[in-house]
Design a protein that fits this description.
Chain lengths: 408, 182
């Protein structure tokens, strides 16, 4: 407890000459090189494989941006005060969502038939699902998701930016109250769209298979990765000389707790999906796991519960690890890596080579290039928006509460 | 004069403070004076007070971890022993040792044993249940659940000296220092 009210942080603008100010250009170059090479590859004979790489990288970064939006909405509704010091960073991450509408275009143009078998295959089951999995409805839903996400994220972002300029206390409090009313129905829209987007873009890679928990799986995995990602981004920003005193071990502790909590949540959801399918043992459901037991995928299937749950669980269990920068950075990097492995395992087994009965685990260079390119595009916009404004919501009525935040 | 009146035994000294910041600095002074058997009582949690008091980190996390792991191991053993040896029964054509089927109970028992341990370890380490306490004899202490803050130093503390301790407490900004009869 400090005896006096904390003074507002002054290191709230990214200093000129730091890597973050050069990031829009660096990220842009990486995006052009990475995505250009993947899409160039998609123009040739390896179109399907390149587009699977592209979809994998797309879902990775879409998951992070979407989780940032979910975090904002939930924090707004819960009236959380502790997170105000990092809220602008989350808002900026969520504000990159419109970019994903553009990045989505190659998936429905170049890779549409290669990725989604239901676009050209015909059988009784698919005919019954046709009302949902049809070109028009699929595209319409995609447009709807992006409209909702853009609306939600930009309203939150703009309102927060407008607050930076107002010093009138009444206006600031009115803004907070308005966002409470906005975020509550926003959560419903968010939950439905992100869940259906996961079903549309990832689950329909395997159109005969279904899992009602799949949308939650996507949510759990991406939110877990998001908190790890956020901790790393804040550490990188502090290295650049921003928010050095504003974000303390207490905030990092909370980010670590969230990462830890969602590690358990991910395992809970992943296991719930598995145990029902395993118990019922119906071929149309077990297909998902059967195909992930062969061709090199089996090792990853067995490794996931250990490396994606037990290892981070025990590593992040202690509060001392979460409160130390090195400990949290190590845990967060590991969790992010397992997020990549998890999504790779979800998406890539659906890539089938014609004439071969089963798929094989085979890492190719387009996987890496797609990640680099997609990350470049994400970081280009993120750092561009971040450098243009203050990195903290400096006039938020609860900033003081957040600055003195302490865990018990 | 009875022996008790000649040599009145007191349980300790009780000091009353008006707000969180005075009790905060008072705790730091009592801590720095080297007292060990003492405690503070506040109407609401005061952040960082445990640091001002110099409390050692709680042992509860370690106790919970140990008992949780024991409960976890026991349950996994018990499930496989019961399903495999005591009542071998084939369910749904699955093998007798079917790990996925054991996981929900395994998990629940881990959580249950950890939670109960945390709950009862907290009681035991805090000396609960404690129906009565010498501080309850003080009329002033009734306001601890309302708007006053208290520090009490036990007479059993090796550094305890009725005059010196009283002087220390008064010097920390206490608005009232009382003797607590044992």
């Amino acid at each position: 407890m400090s005896a006096h009210a904390p003074s507002k942080p002054t290191d709230i603008n990214i200093p000129a000459g730091s890597l973050w100010t050069k990031m829009p250009v660096i990220g842009g170059v990486l995006a052009v090189v990475g995505l250009g090479s993947v899409l160039g590859m998609a123009g040739g004979e390896h179109r399907a494989r390149a587009m699977f790489s592209y979809l994998f990288a797309f879902e990775i970064f879409l998951g992070l941006a979407l989780a940032a939006l979910g975090f904002l909405l939930i924090d707004t509704v819960a009236r959380a005060g502790w997170s105000v010091v990092i809220r602008r960073i989350a808002e900026t991450m969520a504000a990159t969502l419109p970019l994903f509408a553009i990045l989505f275009l190659p998936i429905v143009t170049i890779g549409y038939h290669e990725l989604y078998p239901w676009t050209h295959e015909h059988d009784t089951v698919l005919e019954r699902k046709r009302w949902f999995l049809s070109d028009g409805f699929f595209m319409g839903r995609a447009v709807f998701y992006f409209v909702v996400w853009t609306m939600l994220s930009l309203v939150m972002y703009r309102s927060s930016l407008a607050q930076d300029a107002t010093t009138d206390e009444g206006a600031r409090n009115a803004r907070v109250r308005k966002l409470w009313a906005f975020a509550a129905p926003g959560i419903i829209l968010y939950a439905l769209t992100q869940s259906f987007a996961a079903i549309d873009w990832m689950m329909s890679l395997m159109p005969h298979w279904y899992s009602t928990i799949f949308g939650v799986y996507f949510f759990a995995a991406s939110v877990q990765a998001y908190f790890a990602f956020m901790a790393l981004v804040v550490m990188a920003l502090q290295r650049a000389g921003v928010l050095k005193d504003a974000v303390t071990s207490e905030h990092f502790h909370d980010l670590g707790k969230y990462t830890f909590g969602f590690t358990i949540f991910w395992a809970y959801i992943a296991f719930s999906q598995f145990v029902l399918i395993w118990y019922a043992n119906i071929p149309e459901e077990t297909e998902f796991y059967v195909m992930r037991m062969h061709g090199g995928w089996g090792a990853i299937s067995y490794a996931l519960p250990v490396l994606h749950f037990f290892v981070p669980f025990f590593f992040l269990l202690s509060r001392h690890v979460k409160r130390k920068r090195t400990g949290l950075a190590l845990g967060a990097s590991y969790v992010l890596f397992m997020y990549l492995v998890d999504f790779y395992w979800l998406i890539l087994p659906n890539f089938k080579v014609e004439g071969q009965p089963e798929t094989h685990f085979h890492l190719v260079w387009t996987d890496v290039m797609a990640l680099v390119g997609m990350g470049g595009a994400f970081f280009a916009l993120f750092s561009f928006l971040l450098a243009r404004n203050k990195v903290i919501a400096i006039n938020d009525p609860r900033l003081e509460e957040s600055l003195v935040h302490e865990n018990y | 004069m009875t022996a008790l009146e000649k040599n009145p035994r007191i349980w300790g000294l009780l000091a009353q403070y008006e707000n969180p910041s005075t009790i905060f600095t008072a705790c730091e002074k009592v801590r720095d004076a080297g007292y060990e058997k003492w405690d503070s009582c506040t109407p609401f949690p005061v952040h960082g007070l445990e640091k001002a008091m110099g409390c050692k980190p709680s042992k509860i996390p370690w106790i919970v971890l140990c008992v949780g792991l024991c409960g976890s191991t026991f349950m996994l053993w018990f499930e496989s022993f019961a399903m495999g040896n005591l009542y071998p029964m084939v369910v749904g054509g699955k093998p007798l040792f079917s790990l996925p089927a054991f996981v929900p109970i395994w998990y629940e028992i881990t959580v249950l044993s950890s939670c109960l341990t945390a709950f009862f370890a907290n009681w035991i380490l805090s000396g609960l249940p404690q129906p009565n306490h010498p501080a309850f004899n003080s009329k002033a202490f009734e306001r601890v659940t309302d708007d006053k803050f208290f520090i009490m130093i036990e007479s059993e503390d090796p550094k305890f000296d009725i005059e010196q301790t009283r002087a220390l407490l008064q010097s920390t900004g206490a608005t009232l220092v009382e003797e607590l009869p044992s």
